[in-house]
Amino acid sequence: MAERDGYIPGVPCWVDVSEPDPEGVLAFYRGLFGWEFEDMMPAGSAGKYFIGRIRGGDVAAVGSIPEGAPPVATWNTYISVASADDTATTAGKAGGGVLAEPFDVMDAGRMAVLADPDGAAFCVWQAKNHQGAKVVNEHGSLNFNGLATPDPQKAEAFYGAVFGWRVLALPSGLAWTLPGYGDHLEERSPGLRQQMAQTGAPEGFIDVVATLSPIPDGADEPAHWSVTFGVDDAHAAASQASALGGEVITKPFDAPWTRSTLIKDPQGAVFIASQFVPENRDVPA
């Protein structure tokens, strides 16, 4: 169990899924992850935005597809920033695109929808009353965000300019790090560095904020951000997802430290469910 009360700039802080029929998938996520939902939109609003919670703590949200956006169910990654306006400007200068100019989300915060130079879309979040996910890194909650890209070097230049991220090579693959993030985590949880060292975490892992996966040449896969939720049992999660009307795209497989499965919800939004498996520490990437 891990609970958060805020995020420093440059750290993924929230996820939501845009669905053609938000109410139609609530039973799926309720059954799979145990989320309890509350519609945050005022009565009579054209769109819906249901925040999912565990023990009363915000985890993620299910909402309508924004007007003008492609009619495709999609999980969205939000990254904490000090200023959505400044970040949008920086992203444009770094070669990215602004898909939705900065706007206020009632009294919750201010956001913008951006794209990196290869077209991977993501959101930036300037928190006001909504700080982001409260419950993370446990069953049914956000565990990781990841970028898949055909050009890691171009991505490194862009995300480095926008968020100050650096690329770290780990035995399990590439990852994004935010210098100083580990110091922040250690301040919040004294002894965390030592705990991670004792479990065999690679050097520098405490600064990791996301993963980075190169898309092979010739692969028919666009650049995109992915969302990973923690689960207690990947096999059980895959089975439950199928029973609830979802589709298991990739059956559970072992990877360094994890056992993961790729799942599509009943309306087509894809996400990863990942089980922490310490004995998989030395499994080849």
What does this structure look like?
The chain has 285 residues and is of the alpha+beta class. The chain has an eight-stranded mixed β-sheet with strand order 3-4-5-2-6-9-8-7. Strands 12-13-14-11-15-18-17-16 form an eight-stranded mixed β-sheet, with helices on one face. It has a two-stranded antiparallel ribbon with strand order 1-10. Helices cover 21% and strands 40% of the residues. It has six helices and 18 strands. The mean pLDDT is 95. The protein has two domains: 2-136, 2,3-Dihydroxybiphenyl 1,2-Dioxygenase, domain 1, CATH 3.10.180; 142-280, 2,3-Dihydroxybiphenyl 1,2-Dioxygenase, domain 1, CATH 3.10.180.10.
Kindly identify the CATH topology of the largest domain: 2,3-Dihydroxybiphenyl 1,2-Dioxygenase, domain 1
Strand order of the largest sheet: 3-4-5-2-6-9-8-7
Structural class label: alpha+beta
Total number of domains:
2
Can you tell me the CATH class of the largest domain? Alpha Beta
- Biggest sheet layout: 8 strands, mixed
Q: What's the pLDDT, averaged over the residues?
A: 95
pLDDT under 50 segments (min length 5)?
none
The end-to-end span amounts to: 26 Å
Number of helices: 6
CATH architecture of the largest domain: Roll
SSE ordering: EEHEEEEHEEEEEHEEHHEEHEEE
Radius of gyration: 18 Å
- The proportion of strand residues reads 35-45%
From the spread of the alpha carbons, the general shape counts as globular
Q: What name goes with the CATH superfamily of the largest domain?
A: 2,3-Dihydroxybiphenyl 1,2-Dioxygenase, domain 1
The overall strand count is 18
Outline the secondary-structure elements.
Elements: E1 2-3, E2 12-19, H1 22-33, E3 36-39, E4 49-54, E5 57-64, E6 74-80, H2 84-93, E7 97-105, E8 109-115, E9 121-127, E10 135-136, E11 142-149, H3 152-163, E12 166-170, E13 173-177, H4 181-188, H5 192-198, E14 208-214, E15 224-230, H6 234-243, E16 247-255, E17 258-264, E18 270-276
Parallel strand pairs: 2-5, 6-9, 11-14, 15-18
Antiparallel strand pairs: 1-10, 2-6, 3-4, 4-5, 7-8, 8-9, 11-15, 12-13, 13-14, 16-17, 17-18
